[in-house]
Amino acid sequence: MTSSSSPSGTGSAVAQVLRSPALLTREALAGVITALALIPEVISFSVIAGVSPEVSLIASVVLCLAMSVLGGRPAMVTAAAGSVALVIGPMVHQHGVGYILPAVVLAGIIQIAFGALGMARLMRFIPQAVMTGFVNALGILIFFAQVPHFWSRNPLILALFAATMLIVLLAPRVIKSIPSPLIAVVFLTAVAIFSGQPLPTVGDEGAMSGSLPGLNVLQVPLNLHTLQIIWPCALSIAFVGLMESLLTARLVDDITATPSGKSRESAGLGIANILAGFYGGIAGCAMIGQTIVNVEMGKGRTRISTLVAGLVLLLLVTALSSVMAKIPMAVLAGIMVIVAVKTFSWHSIQPASLKQMPWSATVVMLATVIATVGTGNLAVGVLAGLIVMALVPGHIRRRHALKLETASPAQEK
Hints:
By secondary structure, this protein is mainly alpha-helical. Helix content is 72%, strand content 1%. It has a two-stranded antiparallel sheet.
């Protein structure tokens, strides 16, 4: 299992899936629900970045398809992410969208160099307490991002939201061959349409032309003035994207008990971002919420699942844009709330766990959570956690590290 799911054994894993209709169906359906889960997040992040929803969606298609081939972590979902949008937004608002392409290309070159030089190995030194804080903060952010989509006085919106969670949680007990989020989306979208009541839908988040854009061309001169504008943003895009992608890869490694190629992931992300810059228009990185949808809810394990996700998203943005526009936001919010609950490490806040955990680890975890939730930036949260860890007295830090090394994988999770 481990070898077949590793980067070196990717070909054999895919071949095994292709020989099994049941496994192929599982991977394909995982990709379908992942594509649906991408839509609300990507559209909302486009507002932060200062670009149209269509730009972010097309970039996500390019990123997802490219990383299905180039990435070092099979089944991990890469798309236009909020953390990257946060660092692109200020530059766009101050200087205009013309500077996005050179900034993204420069960021991609930095990421390729990072992977080629083997610097991804540095991620091994991120403490488990920081990882736990990263995961918990992300669960909190995912949850609160959904609140505006279901918190309403309209009883039908609340009913759709509640029905979504009930279907997602209970349907697997009856229907095991079809992912429950897909059942919820199809069934409840039909209910919303036949109800005839006006409800917030995907189409309300941004207009879709239903056509593919052409290649982006450089709109600003390549000179020192442009470099002065883009280099701070490019560095931020590069390292925020790398940090979030490599931390997510490490999380998926733990969930699936399989290794990943971190250097390949870094270089692949750089190439994918350059491709997205020239065609989609905006950079991205791994999206942990949608990755959890793919890996845990859909049971996706190979590159086929993310390849299908990219193709389905492409189909939704183009030929089926009118269908996608009718999906109620409350239904997608219900799916993502369950993802948030599954993402959060509830074990880490249980009284028994807190008693066994060194106080330094608890402080580091809380610092990571508070900084991440306060800024909305996962990279800032991880940096804050590392700073707090560095301030912990040396003998306590060494004792904590020794405890982590001797702990079993189940205990660490």
